[in-house]
Amino acid sequence: MKDTMRAVVKNKPEPGVSITDVPVPEAKKDEVLIKVIKASICGTDIGIYDWGDWAKGHITPPIVIGHEVVGEILEINSDDPRDLKIGDLVSSETHIYCGQCYQCGVGNAHICENMKLFGISRDGAFAEYATLPIATTWKNDPTIPVDQMSVQEPLGNAVNVVTTANVPGKRVLIYGLGPTGLCAAAVAKAYGAHVVTGIDPSKFRQNLGKEMGCDETFDAVSKERLGSFDIVLEMSGNKQATEEAFEAARLCGTIIAFGIPKEKICIDWGKYMINKELTIKSIFGRMIWDTWHRTSDLLLSKKVDLGKIITHELKLEEFEKAMEIMKSGEAGKIILTP
To answer: Is the distance from CB of 188 to CB of 169 less than 8 angstroms?
Structure first.
C-alpha cells in the first residue's frame, strides 16, 4: 500500500478546504482500515466548509472531513473483531461513544457525554482510506446498492425522527426537503402516514419530494392550513420555518426538532406550550444500533429507494464543484468517489 493518499482537509479555521496529500492512516487497537469506495456530502460538511458557528465550536483543524461512507475492510486490528472480516463492505456510525458514561449505560450511546464525531473530531472519509472504531462500524448487507450504503446515515436520522413522531394514520408536515427531509418523507409513507406535505423554497427539491413520497409540496404553508397538521418535522433549521412549526401543528400536535438553526429561536411559551398542549421532541442522530437495523430493513424491502435522491456523483478532487452544486439547491445527495 502507498504511504500517502488524496484527502479533503480542513486545514485552517477559516472558510474553504484543501484537497491535498496526507499520510495513509494506520488502524489503531480495535479499529479497522478501509478503502473508501463512496462518500456522500452532508449539510454539516457545508457548515464546516463555510466555517459557521457550529463548525467553530466542534472542529480543530487540521482534519480530514466527511462522515457518510461505504468502504472495504483492508485491515482489522483487534482481538475481538465481532463478525467483521477482511473484504466486508462497511459504513460508519458518526457518533463514537465511550461506553462508560451514564447515557451509554442507559441505552443512549448516540448522545454519549464524552462523544467524539467521525469526520468532525477525528479524521473522516473524504479520502482514499480511513480508519473506523470497530464499535461504530456497521457491516452492510451486500445486496444493498453500494451508492445507497453511503447514504444510510442521513436515512437513519430520518428513521429516528419518524419513529419518534409515531406517524401511522397522521397528517405530517415536513419543513425542509434537503436529503434528510427527503428521507423523512419516504420513511413517513413507509411507516403509514396518512398524508405527507413537504415545504421547501426549491422547485427542484419539491419535485424530489414528490418522488420520495410527499403527497404534495409547496414553498410555504397557506394560512388556511396552519394548525391542521398532527405532526410537524422541522428538518431545515431555518428560523422562520422553526417558528412557523408551532403555528402549523394542530392542538395537542407533535413537533420533532432536527434541523440546527444558525440563530436563536424565540417562541411564545404560553401560546404554544401551554394553550396548544404541544409535544416537542428533539432528535440528535441515530439510535445505536436499533436505527441502523430499521434503516437496513427499509432498503432491503425496497420500501425506501435512496437512488432517487442521489443526483450527482463526482470525483473527490471535484469537492469545490460539489459545494457549488449543493449550495445552489439544485441537488439531492452528492456522492464522491476517490
So the answer is: no
Compute φ and ψ for 231, nearest 5 degrees: -135, 135
Residue 309 cell numbers, joined: 435522491
Q: How many CA atoms lie within 13 A of 89 on its CB side?
A: 17
* pLDDT at site 253: 98
Supply the pLDDT for residue 97. Answer: 98
| Cell numbers 469537492: residue | 319
Q: Which of 284, 295, 259 is nearest to 112 (CA)?
A: 284
The yes-or-no verdict on residue 263 having pLDDT over 90 is no
CA distance 154 to 306: 10
Tell me how many degrees the CA angle 194-200-206 measures, rounded to the nearest 5: 70
pLDDT tens-digit series, residues 311-335: 999 999 999 999 999 999 899 999 9
* Domains annotated on the chain, with CATH: 4-151+309-337 (3.90.180.10), 154-282 (3.40.50.720)
Please give the pLDDT value at position 140: 98
